[in-house]
Design brief:
Elements (H helix, E strand, L loop, with lengths): L11 E7 L5 H12 L4 E3 L8 E8 L6 H5 L3 E9 L1 E3 L8 E4 L6 H7 L5 E5 L8 E2 L2 E2 H6 L9 E15 L2 E8 L5 H11 L4 E11 L2 E2 L6 H9 L19 E3 L2 H8 L4 E2 L2 H12 L9 E6 L2 E9 L2 E7 L6
Parallel strand pairs: 3-12, 14-16
Antiparallel strand pairs: 1-3, 2-3, 4-11, 4-12, 5-6, 7-10, 8-9, 10-11, 12-13, 15-18, 16-17, 17-18
Length: about 325
């Protein structure tokens, strides 16, 4: 007999507005405790000095985290000119100063070089592992860290505002693995300036975005009032970009047992058309199946059959 998990079998997503100064792991722990959830995770780390969208998965929703990790993200950030820090944000020691203040027009002219499929060198102060150690731990010990360029994609970049000559606010839409601090670093280098990120907010992760985010304080109030379920989004929220197919009770039973099901030719053609229409050109053949409006399983479409890869249980989903 398996050991019973501690906590309640609550499942769903919380569109958290992470506060400034809190780490992503701490935020997940706080939300998990509020709901006394058995399992919890998040879809994409957000730096302690950043605020904004941190989708937190509870229970069965943790099985859908990988799909949200691949979702597009939007960041709004402010570059403060004149000073470069070791971490390229407000936390690091000053390593460079300059009187150069790029104009908004100069920044706008430089931004196209950052859009598209590019190679980006992550900041030394990052969670990337080097010989088994986190890069930021080595950097804090004064050990020189050289990270290899990594392919990332930035779909759009624009100047939002320039409140004064010392600061400029940008917005980028990007894929996973993109470092905003690296964008600020490389932009400053390109313009012959010194600069660092003085404010950073993630406004969107997939379908989780402003103004629908909820603060920890408001979430705690809801839970304490017995209304925590009002903030809990369905497990399927992270699967908006994945084709869905309603199946019969019999097929749902088979899928939950780990067995594949055979589709009708018209179902196969409909799913193939939706899979091929993926705007990002993703070659994934993943399909979400539902029964009575509730998720049953994530499946792979192969040779006219759906084979379950992740199964969801009705009592927990």
């Amino acid at each position: 007999m398996g050991r019973r998990r501690k906590g309640d079998p609550v499942s769903g997503w919380i569109a958290l507005d992470k506060p400034y100064g809190m780490g992503s792991t701490d935020a997940v722990s706080k939300v998990r405790r509020l709901f006394n959830a058995q399992k919890a995770g998040h879809a994409g780390t957000l730096d302690p000095l950043a605020t904004g969208a941190l989708p937190i998965a509870l229970g069965e929703a943790t099985k859908t985290v990988p799909f949200l990790m691949d979702a597009r993200k939007v960041y709004r950030f402010t570059i403060e000119w004149g000073v470069t820090t070791a971490s390229y944000d407000q936390e690091g020691a000053v390593i460079g100063r300059s009187d150069v203040r790029p104009t908004p027009a100069e920044v706008e002219a430089a931004l196209p070089a950052f859009v598209g499929d590019i190679l980006q060198v992550p900041p030394a102060f990052s969670a990337i592992k080097v010989d088994g150690e986190r890069a930021y731990d080595l950097a804090r010990e004064g050990i020189a860290v050289e990270l290899e360029p990594r392919p990332v994609v930035i779909y759009a970049a624009a100047v939002v505002e320039a409140p004064d000559v010392d600061r400029i606010t940008l917005e980028i839409e990007c894929g996973k693995g993109t470092y905003v601090r690296a964008v600020a670093r490389d932009l400053a280098i390109m313009l012959g300036a010194e600069g660092h990120v003085s404010a950073l907010r993630r406004t969107r992760v997939g379908g989780f975005c402003d103004p629908a985010l909820i603060s920890l304080e408001n979430l705690a109030d809801l839970v304490h009032e017995g209304d925590g379920s009002k903030a809990l989004l369905p497990v399927e929220t992270a699967l908006d970009d994945i084709p869905a197919l309603a199946v019969t009770h019999e097929d749902a039973f088979r899928l939950r047992q780990g067995r594949s099901i055979v589709l009708l030719p018209r179902q196969v053609e409909t799913l193939k058309a939706r899979l091929q229409s993926d705007p990002d050109g993703d070659a994934s053949r993943t399909v979400s199946t539902t029964s009575d409006g509730r998720i049953v399983a994530l499946c792979e479409l192969r040779a006219g059959r759906l084979s379950p890869t992740r199964v969801f249980h009705p009592s927990e989903a």
